[in-house]
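dude i think i finally got it to work??
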Amino acid sequence: MNYRNQLLRESEDAKMALIFSKISEKLKELGFIRASDSVKTKIGNKGISGEYSISQKRKNDVIEISNKCWHSGKQKHETAKQKKKSRVAAPALSL
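look at this
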């Protein structure tokens, strides 16, 4: 969600492309492979001048994708954190 908020404030294409790639990576970590691939395609290719050209529509599409995945992704993230905490705490209790 933090990346989404950064994306809302950003207007420079190169920085938006970096944020898109971070969002894509995070979606992949949470198991949203298809959404991750969709965000990657929204980055597009560099133009002749070597710069990205990201339209407002693409930006809005990525924001929408991140909003849709956030609710179920948040639940997955919280359960993963709880499992990690229980694994870390379990060896300390067995001593």
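The chain has one domain: 2-70.
im so relieved honestly
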